[in-house]
Amino acid sequence: MRRFIRFWKKRNAYFHVGFVILAVLFLCVIVSYFWLPYDPTAMNPSMTGQGPSFSHIFGTDEYGRDVFSRVLVGMQDSFTIAFGVIALGGLIGAVVGSLSGYLGGWLDEVIMRLNDSLISIPSILLALVMISLVGAGKYNVIVALGIAFIPSFARLVRGEVIKVKDAEYVRSAKLMGAGKLRIIFIHIFPNIFPTWMAGVAVGFNNAVLAESGLSFLGIGVTPPEASLGRMLAEAQSVMFSSPWCVVAPGIFLILLILGFSFVSENYSEKGV
Amino acid sequence: MKQIARRLIALVLTLLLISFLIFVIFQIIPGDGAVSRLGTNATPEQIAALRKELHLDDPFFKRYFSWLFGLFRGDFGSSYKYDMSVAELIGGKLKVTFFLAMESFFLIVLISLPVGIFLGRTAKKPIGAALHVTTQVCMAVPSFFTGILIILIFGLGLKLFIPYYFVKPENSFFGFLGCMIPGAFAIAIPKIAMVSRFLRTNVLEESRKDYVRTAYSKGAGEKHVFYRHILKNAILPVVTILGMTIAEIMAGSIVVEQVFGLPGMGQLLISSINHRDFPVVSVIILYMAFVVIVMNTIVDILYQCIDPRISMED
Amino acid sequence: MLLSVKDLCVEFRDKVAVDHVNFQVDENEIVGIIGESGSGKSVSVLSVMGLLNDDAKVSGSALFDGKDLSELKLNERQMYKGKEISMVFQEPMTSLNPLMKIGRQVEEVMLLHPEAFSELTEEQRKAKVIETLQIVGLDHPEQIVSMYPHELSGGMRQRVMIAIALIGQPRLMIADEPTTALDVVLQEQILQLLKELNKKLHMSVLFISHNMSIVRNFCDRVYVMQNGKIVETGTPEQIFKHPKEKYTQILIASIPDGTPREDKDDVLDEPVLELKDFSAFYPKKKKHFFEKGGRVCIVDHVDLTIHAGECVGLVGRSGCGKSTLSKGILGLLKDTEGAVIHHSKHPQMIFQDPYSSLNPKKKIGWILKQPLALRTDLTPDEKSKIVIEMVQKVGLKPEVLDRYPRELSGGMRQRISIAIALVQGSKFIIADEPVSALDVTVQKQILELFLKVQRETNIAFLFISHDRDVVKQMCHRIVYMADGKLSDEEKGKEILDKDAPVC
After folding, report:
1. CA–CA min distance B221, chain A (Å)
2. For residue range A21-44, what is the model confidence (pLDDT) as tens digits?
3. Residue C277: what are its φ and ψ, rounded to 5°?
4. pLDDT per position as a tens digit, C313-363
């Protein structure tokens, strides 16, 4: 607890706001796994297109489903996909980047050529390419976006490794006889960790954005899964008659992205 | 000059690499093109005949190079879904996406520079801080949601434009440009926020540098120091960031075309992906990657021409 | 009296940086302020120039030619800056605007002071810029005006800075460590230039430095500062020969006096390192994509033997290949020729910058245990015991083991670097400018520690430095390096000698 307080005090106001937003949303998601106000898939013909009220705080959609319950379930997907994407892209990117940066030589040359080509293609486009091969669906989206995110993480980590690898403490570690992998992962990586974490925070932000974009286009998650982006796409046809169907998932989506971007702001303000 | 030559060689290599990757991904991995076109009910003889016609039995590299040279001659292959050549299918849609992207790029350049300068000048005042948070919110809104909000507020509420109204460029070029402006804004807003924040950070960073202190020691006032010394140094790196937004504008246009019902390449791409129409998908992706990479190279070369530190060195 | 500062106080948040300071500069006088880092010397003069940030609270008065600068309005004060009082800064590499041509940067002073220069036409201004660049000793000023800062060397940039400070014909020039970032030869040239300008143009100079010997030879009067206060003042003669205050005495006693080291009995006749015909190369930058990479020779056929217990000094100008040679000896280079024979295990290196030589994310205890981490013949308790013993040997308390590098001062970090070598049981250490980043008093303590460690353990040192006095005091033998070659004693002295002609 004391460590958390110290950690908290060292961060700026942006981080605090972002952290609170994320904590509340995350709590909602956890609760939603055990309890929901209504069954998110239960249609109710007598309750179609109702505006917000006490019983349905975000109203109902054109099939009479409770929008709030659907938003909660949608957030489950958005959260899990973002975590999966970062776990895949962030970790593989870190390993590729640090090996390429530290070892240098032709390996670095090849990896970076490939990386540069891939990075110039927007990650959503890369993901589109992969999804067009393997088809839509939650897990395919995770894999597609995860792979699409590798180049940017690799570049970030590689740059940092190159900055640190000629530091004098690394040289003296070499003189002590430490091996390459030991130097990369024990001596260098702890120094890169804050930058990598900043990258992860930005990555979450981008992953949620990209996933919502894909799902909005109808090539992300597939029914019965319902991420926030997919809900928005479905609600677009009724946005004139029941705008709350658009606004509710939209606001939660923005809050989710904003939470991550505020948390990452802490790092960029410090110039990490 | 050598720098530029080196960039151009790298450009060609990157384009070749990407075309190769796309060829492998769309021509080789999906399996037998003949089967997918004729369906699973086709007889082996029919398939074999079509394979021959499509040169699917040729060796790998021969297929790659004939595909590549086809692209140079304007032969983009033909669609599986429609009985049309890809070139015909893409034809008019190219214009929509191109001008949509151009419009949003101009909006970004025109708006983000003054906003960024203002943010940098007012960084320590409440108004600057408030605007800074606003830009962060703008960045967090996905462009398709911005699009929906624009339709709801400016289209439906304020009646400033008619939602889903599209003018063909043949009918009226300016009408065509005008009807895409709301979409261009939907793409541009998050990027405007991003670029102006970047400029703000640069301004703050540059104002801490030693040469600024030198300028003050000459007896310069705050305004003189800002406009004559800090600004040029702060804007220069923005050129690179602007180059990077081109990729994101491309990505944004795919989504925003759906929201505003604009008949561009984005719409075609999505429907082709849904129909697994690989020749169309591969050409559109290749085209988009091509635009992004070429534009980035142009920006890079431009940067080298502006910054005396680079252009002089080699 | 030209400048008279009275009761100057500067506070940052709750920290007092300058505490009731009084000093003055007379017409035509060169006044020095010396002090160690954090003594408040730079802050004092920056506040006189009005260059401190908004978060600094300043009180007191600064009378310039009878007018109190602190009471002037912002725009009135700007009339003084650059015109009446000008300033030269420490870091020539970053003090010029990278995107503005040199000529413009010098000319700007005249454009900013129309009250003095409005009658000059554009041609006359340009001519004056060229003339001023000539005065500060830059060749081909016609070409230099259209160059950018990155095309000039550090010494040239500092001359440009002086030209900027000079062109307004100020009555007082403040020079804040103007030579610290330059190598010895350049240092001397810049000082000579300042002295000439003082004589010729009747311009007073307020000179800030941490380097005692420079101040001694250069200034007419000296102030000594410590912890934001002025401790003592007098002529260099008084201060350096008969210091009154205790702090000044310590400061003066810490200056390396350059008495040669004489205890040669400790040197044993067994070599720890032999270099035979050793050369090192860096890859040449490729001019175009398909060119085959050539290589540049940085260290050129070097022969050197170092014996156990010996301290060999290596001296040379910046860029002569000293650092490359040391990397080559330690096997950190890829492209080398000739033989490096180590007769001992685990050579270690002590670096110039104590801030980057320890891993910032690890505790001192962890760092010190690293050399033992791979050894299986020791129990963890034995390892801890060795580490504690060595920490005490370098004069630190075992509590530091639980700290992070950022919590230690520069001197303490250099002690830790020595401890690392001791833990490892090194018999040969390369020390690359190990004290040049430290304050004089700390410098003295660290040099004493080097000597103590060497006597006790018979470690051999290759001691790299550009400070002649330090090297003489520390080393049994000095080798000189120029253009990648080791040169003999005589020629080497010439390279370093202060009276030598300008290169």
Report:
1. 27
2. 999 999 999 998 888 888 877 777
3. 50, 50
4. 888 777 788 888 888 888 888 888 888 888 887 888 888 887 788 898 889
With 0-12 CB in 10 A as exposed, 13-18 as middle and 19+ as buried, what is B40?
A: exposed
Rounded Cα–Cα distance for residues B238 and B250 (Å): 19
Report CA A20 to chain centroid distance, whole Å. 17
Chain C partners (3+ C-beta pairs within 8 A): A, B
d(CA C270, CA B60): 67
C18: exposed, middle or buried (Cβ count in 10 Å: 0-12, 13-18, 19+): buried
Contact between C39 and C227 (Cβ < 8 Å): yes
C-alpha to C-alpha distances, C406 to A162, B308, C443, nearest whole angstrom = 22, 38, 19
Q: Torsion angle, CA of A184/A185/A186/A192, rounded to 10 degrees?
A: 80
Chain B hits for C94, Cβ within 8 Å: 209-211
For A257, the closest chain B residue by CA position comes to B140
Token pair in block for residue B259: 């929201």
Residue A134: other Cβ atoms inside 10 A = 13
- Tell me which chain A residue has its CA closest to the CA of residue C353: A168
Integer CA distances (angstroms), B239 to A67, B235, B236, in order: 44, 7, 6
What is the CATH number assigned to the segment(s) A12-27+75-270?
Answer: 1.10.3720.10
Total Cβ atoms within 10 A of residue C208: 25
Other C-beta atoms within 10 Å of C193: how many? Answer: 18
Q: Among A176, A187, A193, whose Cβ lies nearest the Cβ of C424?
A: A176
Q: How far is A173 from chain C (nearest CA, A)?
A: 8
Among C78, C99, C150, the residue with its CB nearest the CB of B219 is C78
CA separation for the pair C400, B135 (Å, rounded): 46
Q: Which of B1, B35, B77, B11 is nearest to B272 (CA)?
A: B77
**pLDDT of C146-205, one tens digit each?**
999 988 988 899 999 999 999 988 999 999 988 887 777 778 888 888 898 899 888 999
CB contact under 8 Å between B314 and C287, yes or no, is yes
Nearest CA to C214 among C485, C467, C495? C467
Which ipTM did the prediction report? 0.81
Q: Choose from A176, A185, A272 for mutation: most chain C CBs within 10 A.
A: A176
Share of chain A residues as helix, strand and coil, in percent rounded to the nearest 5: 75, 0, 25
Closest partner CB to B25 (pick from A116, A133, A217)? A133
Q: Which residue has the tokens 């240092």?
A: C187
Residues on chain A touching B144 (C-beta within 8 angstroms):
212-213, 216, 229, 232
Q: How many CB atoms lie within 10 A of CB A88?
A: 21
**Partners of C207 in the β-ladder:** C32, C175
Q: What is the pTM for the complete model shown?
A: 0.85
Give the whole-angstrom CA distance, residue B123 versus residue B131.
9
Q: Do B136 and A128 touch (CB under 8 A)?
A: no
What DSSP designation does C97 have?
A: -
Which of helix, strand or coil describes residue C92?
Answer: coil
Name residues 71-110 of chain B within 8 A of A (Cβ): none
**Cβ within 8 Å, pair C100-B229:** yes
| CA–CA separation, C322 and C227 (whole Å) | 36
Measured between alpha carbons, how far is C486 from C325 in angstroms, rounded to an integer? 10
CB contact, 8 Å: B191 with chain C?
Answer: no
Task: Quote the minimal CA–CA distance from C488 to chain B in Å.
Answer: 36
Rounded distance between C-alpha atoms, residue B58 and residue B51, angstroms: 9
- Report the gap between the CA of C150 and the closest CA in chain B (Å): 7
User: Rounded to an integer, what distance in angstroms lies between the CA atom of residue B122 and that of residue B128?
Assistant: 5
